[in-house]
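Ticket #4471: structure export looks truncated?
Reporter: QA, pipeline team
Priority: medium

Steps to reproduce: submit the single chain below to the structure queue and open the exported record.
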Amino acid sequence: MLRRIAAVVVTLIALVAGVRLVTAPDPAGVRRQLTFLRAALDDDAATDAQQLFPEGYFFLYALYGLARVDLGDEQEARWALEHLETPEGRAPFSAGLTPAYGVFYQGWTNWLRGGILSLRPDPLLRERFEASSAALASAFDAAPTPYLAAYPGQAWPVDSTVAVASLRLHDRLLPPRYGATVTRWLAGVRVRLDPATGLMPHTVDPVSGAPTSGARGSSQSIIQRFLTDIDPAFAREQYQRFRSLFVTRPLRLGPAVREYPPGVSGAGDVDSGPLVLGVSLSATAVTLGAARVQGDATLARALENYGELVGVPVTTPWSKRYAGGLLPIGDAFLAWSKTARPWVSDPPAPPERELTRWWRVPLVAVLALAVLLSWIPVARAASSRREQQRQRAPGQVLDVLR
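Actual output as written to the record:
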């Protein structure tokens, strides 16, 4: 009986997994995720996230707000912005940097301000957006490198990419002012690419902008999300290179994103999270958003389906959370990725397909094998019982004759 119950349970799990793997994602799912995230934020999840990595508090509110902008929810996006513009939101960052609190804080906050402003005109918000955009542009114009510091003595190209995207957003929403700044930035980026991959590096020297570490999936996935709104042609070139080097299928199963390019080994850290077969779960989730803004519907759909399989989502009529809701910051990155759309540029044409239509077949085969193996002990037990009954049958006949 226990074997049969176990086999039924395995079969039901495999059926649910198979359906999640092949069906179109539920459009309402991301709103359920955001409902869960709002409740988690009300329950102080941002403070808990801050214990996990330096920008935990900031990112949880920022990503929640950005996803709300994508869905047109202005009030909730403003609520998130208010929490970024507090002492708690600025706490990890240095006021002595240029611009104040560093390019990470100013870039992401300015991007959210611009997103909210795109939903509805607001004179006070416009004034803050213009002031922060001017401060960012002034810092870029004065710097000898395209990459400003996020922390004293430390610079990550991804942070400057977000900030420059906010300047492009300014010039779409308001009278253009920063075209020359963006052009100079792009020229500086092109001569400081990681020589091994041809992509923007993970870290750079804050004075010269020279790469100090090569391209990595955790930062590339965000860079590819924002480059489209800065320069679509350069973005497509970079995205295709990124996709060819970092998108992989470990064990020939579903698509995922490695943290390091082929031939480079390294450990996981606060940026990538733990690595499984070299794959960064955070980079994989964020690449879903990059694929969406690049018009790469095939990869985006595959990443979302695979996430529905391995993320073990728990869904109710009101909320949805992945991995049991243990890490709300993971849900925030995933929700932000699912709502991704270009804010400045027109949606690009789809790139050439790299992922075949048959990528699900090995996963379906694994599920089918799990079902088969679960039923084999049941079949063997049933066969054994029948054999025992056949062996007892002659004796039972003799007993009757006696």
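Status: closed, not a bug. The export was complete when the record was re-opened. Leaving a note from the reviewer for reference: The mean pLDDT is 92.
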